[in-house]
Amino acid sequence: MIFEVLRQKAKELKKQTLTVYFASRDPKLSMHIKIIAILVVAYALSPIDLIPDFIPIFGLLDDIIIVPLGLALIIHLTPPEIIEAAQIKALQSTERPTSYMAALIFIFIWLIILLLSGQWFYHEFIT
User: Fold this and answer.
1) CA–CA dist 31, 62 (Å, integer)
2) How wide is the angle at C-alpha 61 spanned by C-alphas 21 and 72, nearest 5°?
3) pLDDT tens digits for the chain (127 residues)?
4) Which helix (H) or strand (E) is 119 found in, with range?
């Protein structure tokens, strides 16, 4: 019973994430809202979290609090006609298969960031 509720909530969160993604691509949306929307969507879809999920209780806080609040903020700031058009696109895209290429690109980008951070840390503090 509880797993079904969680599954439904996750599905709704994914739909909202896609809605914000499509809204951020609308040319009528102001630039500051676009930037916030892109950051929220990138964080929501990224396989790497601010707080890793394996940390008890705190690991899920970003998924439970940060992402929904960011999505709600963008939906609130975006004009209703843009949100409606984005919701239609989001519903159409959920019928498509999952993109594993996008996941690989996210992992690749995070690995590059991690590598560059490690090199900077090594040169700054070790040598």
Assistant:
1) 25
2) 35
3) 776 876 787 778 888 888 988 999 999 999 999 998 888 888 877 777 767 767 777 777 777 788 889 889 999 999 999 999 999 998 888 766 667 787 788 899 999 999 999 999 999 888 7
4) helix 100-121
Contacts of 37 (CB under 8 A, 6+ apart): 20, 21, 23, 24, 29, 74, 78
Question: Whose structure tokens read 């960011």?
Answer: 70
Among the listed residues 41, 43, 37, the one whose alpha carbon sits nearest the alpha carbon of residue 74: 37
- The secondary structure of 57-112 as a DSSP string is TGGGHIIIIIHHHHHHHHHHHS-HHHHHHHHHHHHHHTTSPP-HHHHHHHHHHHHH
Instruction: Name the DSSP letter for residue 51.
Output: S
In this structure, are residues 75 and 83 in contact, taking their beta carbons and an 8 Å threshold?
A: yes
Between CA 58 and CA 105 the distance in angstroms is 27
Reported pTM: 0.60
Chain centroid to CA 54: how far?
Answer: 19
Task: Please count the residues of the chain.
Answer: 127
